[in-house]
Structure formats: structure tokens, C-alpha cells
From TrEMBL:
GO terms for cellular component: cytosol. Keywords: Metal-binding, NAD, Oxidoreductase, Zinc. Residues 34-162 form the Alcohol dehydrogenase-like N-terminal domain. It comes from Turnera subulata. This is alcohol dehydrogenase.
Length: 378
């Protein structure tokens, strides 16, 4: 067993900001108290990785291992870890969910106050690193996850145990992007059935917001993007109307949304990371109850300018959302279950259209060749 010993493995390291990542061998130390060491099964790229790869000044700590959208299997656990064991499938997250502090116990917040969110170069509890290169030089962490490595060490407040039968290339996306977008519509905005939604930016976050808004029953989902080819893919996620932001003539995209909605959208989402676009989204949000959610990550020193007249006279809400307002440990399993139940539903559809295949499947179930989902959590 590798437990208790450093593991030598490969990782993609940022030595210099903005320069290509370097594949290197590193040592990953065993997990300390309240930590687990994870073998990464799948990891994907979130645009925040790119933002922090480029950023020289904030917080400017290199070399470091990026990556924070992942799924893996626990290789070993540190002292004091009792709810997670070796072999468990886990999803790491950049926000802590300690389940104990007043924020984690409150339904109103997902911002843990015991291990508050910060872009720290080390582990959340003691700030130190578990990574060294072959010369013994320290390699820094990123967002408490650092998944661009074959192995990583993560604090137990940052990991959620999940059903091991989930498809890892799908489940991985719940580690950041899909949770952030779906959660922003579901938990932060609390989009209601019948509402009109405007989404600025149809990247993976914007598309996930559309999916969340559709799940909440929004009837009109307006997508805004500079790239007109985005509409086709966005339709698959629930977008019903499209504004090509580069083709609005002398109007802004926000003004076009305002006209389309006869007074503004009930909910607006900024999914680009541009503070001037936050203002535009806020301006085309319905007076009286409109809610604008900020999801995009702008430069750390960027400021949002709003007309004080608009704020005072129009009674609209502006709110930021980290991780879509979700609590990782309780909400990731809910989203995963929706995904598996939908997969089950489409399997049922196959059964009705293809009776022969259905019979074969049924026989396989009876013979125990295929495990029913509900048994696989054991
Ligand atoms: C972001 C949220 C804002 C700070 C950096 C990380 N989350 C995930 O990509
Ligand atoms: Zn991310």
C-alpha cells in the first residue's frame, strides 16, 4: 500500500504565469489530519484556471498546480477522518462545506466561515503545501483542489462522497461549472416557473444557467452572446431566444433584451466576467423584483458602476454567487441523482421502443449481470 508514504507521480505545473504547463514528476505527501489523498480519475478545464494561469499579480504564487473541476478515488486518509475511507469516489470543490459552522448550518449561505474562501497557495487549514518537485522545491496549490495531477491532497471540508457508479466524465462537471450555473438559477436566483431569464455569455456557465432555469420552469430564456453560432447549442440547454450582441446596431444588447421583454427580464445572469456587462444586465432587469446574478470572474480590482437613480428608484436586486449558492455535500448528490434518474428515464424510453433489447436488459438484471443503481451505493 502507498498509504503513509509520499507518492511520486506526474502533474502539469505552471512554472511561469501565461507560459505553457510543464508535465513533471512530483512528490505528493501523505494527507495530514482532516485531509485525504485522492487519485484523480477525471479533470476538466474551468475558465478560472485560465484566468489564474494568466494573472501575474494575483496572488502571483508560482510554481503551482491548477485544476479544480474533478472526480477521483480516495487513496488514503489522514488522522481524524471518519466519514470518508480509502476507495470512496469523491468530488472535490473549491468552496468548503464544514457542516459545523453557523454559515454551513444555515440554509441561507454556502460560504463556510470556518474555512473561508480564498485563493490560497496552500492547504486551507494550515496554509502549507503537500507538493514538492524532484529537487525538493515546494509547488503551490490552487483553490484547495489542484487536480491537474495524478494525485492530490484535499481537506475533508472540500470533498463530497458520491455514488461510484456515476459516469466520471459527467460527474466531474459538478465539481465547478455545472453546479455553479445550475445552482445560480436554482439556489441563488430561485427562478420561478413562468419567468423570463436573460443570460449574458453562453459558455459552459451560461449554458448551465439555462439548464437550471429550464429545470425551474422558466418559459423564456434569452441567450446573449457575441458569437451567433452559440444559439444552436444553447437551444439544447433550454435557450428559447437569442440576441447576437455584435449585431444590435446602435443599441446595446441590454436595450434589445429590454424591448423583447416589455420592461425587463425577471432574472439576469452575467456569465462573462465583465463589470460593464454587470451594469448592462442590471439595467435590463425588471423593476420591482428583478434579480441580477453575477457569476463571471473579472480582474480582482475591477469595479461595478451602477446609476444610483436606477438603484434607488427601481427596487432591483444585485447578487453575487459562488458555486451557484450550493452547499457541496448536500446539493451535489441531489444534482447527480437528477442526472442518473434522467438516464434511467431514457433507458425506459428504449424499453418501450425496442422490446427485444428491453427483454435482454431485464434478463441481465434478473441474472445480476447489471446492478440496479440503488444497490451500487453500498
Ligand atoms: C471561481 C470563483 C471566483 C474566484 C475564483 C474561482 N470559481 C470557480 O471557478
Ligand atoms: Zn471553476
Amino acid at each position: 500500500s502507498t498509504a503513509g508514504k509520499p507518492i511520486r507521480c506526474k502533474a502539469a505545473i505552471v512554472r511561469t504565469p501565461g507560459e505553457p504547463l510543464v508535465m513533471e514528476e512530483i512528490f505528493v505527501a501523505p494527507p495530514n489530519r482532516y485531509e485525504v489523498r485522492i487519485k484523480i480519475i477525471c479533470t476538466s478545464l474551468c475558465y478560472s484556471d485560465v484566468t489564474f494561469w494568466r494573472l501575474k499579480e494575483f496572488p502571483g504564487i508560482f510554481p503551482r498546480i491548477l485544476g479544480h473541476e474533478a472526480i477521483g478515488v480516495v487513496e488514503s486518509v489522514g488522522e481524524g477522518v471518519d466519514k470518508i475511507s480509502e476507495g470512496d469516489t469523491v468530488i472535490p470543490a473549491f468552496l468548503a462545506d464544514c457542516e459545523e459552522c453557523s454559515d454551513c448550518r444555515s440554509k441561507k449561505s454556502n460560504l463556510c466561515s470556518k474555512l473561508p474562501f480564498k485563493v490560497s497557495p496552500g492547504m486551507p487549514r494550515d496554509g502549507t503545501s503537500r507538493f514538492t518537485d524532484l529537487n525538493g522545491e515546494v509547488i503551490h496549490h490552487f483553490l484547495s483542489v489542484s487536480s491537474f495531477s495524478e494525485y492530490t491532497v484535499v481537506d475533508i471540508a472540500h470533498v463530497t462522497k458520491v455514488d461510484p457508479s456515476v459516469p466520471p466524465n459527467r460527474a466531474c462537471l459538478l465539481s465547478c461549472g455545472v453546479s455553479t450555473g445550475v445552482g445560480a438559477a436554482w439556489r441563488t436566483a430561485k427562478v420561478e416557473a413562468g419567468s423570463t431569464v436573460a443570460i449574458f455569455g453562453l459558455g459552459s456557465i451560461g449554458l448551465a444557467v439555462a439548464e437550471g432555469a429550464r429545470l425551474c420552469g422558466a418559459t423564456r430564456i434569452i441567450g446573449v452572446d457575441l458569437n451567433p453560432t452559440k444559439f444552436e447549442i444553447a437551444k439544447k440547454f433550454g435557450v428559447t431566444d437569442f440576441v447576437a450582441a455584435g449585431e444590435c446596431g446602435n443599441k446595446s444588447a441590454g436595450q434589445v433584451v429590454m424591448e423583447m421583454t416589455d420592461g425587463g427580464a425577471d432574472y439576469c445572469f452575467e456569465c462573462i466576467g465583465s463589470s460593464s456587462l454587470v451594469r448592462e444586465a442590471y439595467e435590463c432587469c425588471r423593476q420591482g423584483w428583478g434579480k441580477t446574478v453575477v457569476l463571471g470572474v473579472d480582474k480582482p480590482n475591477a469595479e461595478i458602476t451602477l446609476s444610483s437613480f436606477d438603484v434607488l428608484h427601481h427596487g432591483k436586486i444585485l447578487i453575487g454567487s459562488l458555486f451557484g449558492g450550493l452547499k457541496a455535500k448536500s446539493d451535489i448528490p441531489v444534482l447527480l441523482k437528477r442526472y442518473t434518474d434522467k438516464a434511467k428515464l431514457s433507458r425506459r424510453a428504449v424499453q418501450t421502443t425496442k422490446p427485444a433489447i428491453a427483454r435482454t436488459l431485464k434478463q441481465s438484471f434478473e441474472k445480476g449481470h447489471i446492478n440496479a443503481r440503488k444497490d451500487s451505493t453500498k
